[in-house]
Amino acid sequence: MTLIEELRQVIRELVEEDLIEEAFQKQTLMELIENFNEVFPSSSYGDLRVTHKKVYGEDTTELKIVIQIKSSSSNGAYSTVIVLRRNDLEEEWNVNMPCEVKCSCPAFKYNVAYGNLKSKNFYGRPDRWARKRPEKKNVKGVPTMCKHLMRAAQEAVQQGIIQQ
Ligand SMILES: [Zn+2]
């Protein structure tokens, strides 16, 4: 193969990858949850403990749920944010609404943020690390959750803040 041919092939692969990423539309909370089960099939979150919880904007068009989850490996806790949006104030908050998420843990930073930024599922102003493609897990950048966000979503549903 000549150098030009090699370059063409590299470029083609890069373009294809970009197309895959651009195909991602803003996901609902349910879609992010389903993606978690595919991207991190061996990760479990049921035992993680909720240490703090605050809910804002229940009567508005933007629901913000801030939940602290105790780390499974250290004494610290991670802070999760789940934001849901609705157009109609009469509509009950539910898992099929468009969603933005963020967590302060390393897994979110290195494996989740990149894909969520691409699909507009990243909550708040993007940090510089959010633009870095994952190198080990979730290398395609599928928009999803970390285990703390999964536990937070579970808590929100169990408490009736979000309907299933
Ligand atoms: Zn996390």
Task: Please specify the SSE layout and strand pairing.
Layout: H1 3-22, H2 29-39, E1 50-56, E2 62-70, E3 77-85, E4 99-103, H3 106-118, H4 147-158
Antiparallel strand pairs: 1-2, 2-3, 3-4
Q: What does this entry show, briefly?
A:
The chain is of the alpha+beta class and 164 residues long. The chain has helices spanning 3-22, 29-39, 106-118, 147-158; strands spanning 50-56, 62-70, 77-85, 99-103. The chain has one domain.
Distance between the termini: 55 Å
Kindly state the percentage of residues in helix: 25-40%
Q: Beta-sheet strand percentage?
A: 15-25%
Bound molecules: zinc ion
Indicate the low-confidence ranges by residue numbers: none
Major β-sheet profile: 4 strands, antiparallel
Number of strands: 4
Rg value:
18 Å
Structural write-up:
Strand 2 (62-70) and strand 3 form a beta hairpin. The longest helix is centred in the N-terminal third of the chain and has 20 residues, at 3-22. 34% of the residues lie in helices and 18% in strands. It has helices at 3-22, 29-39, 106-118, 147-158, and strands spanning 50-56, 62-70, 77-85, 99-103. It has one domain. It is globular and about 60 Å long. It has a 4-stranded antiparallel beta sheet. It is α+β, with helices and mostly antiparallel strands and 164 residues long. The mean pLDDT is 91. Bound molecules: zinc ion.
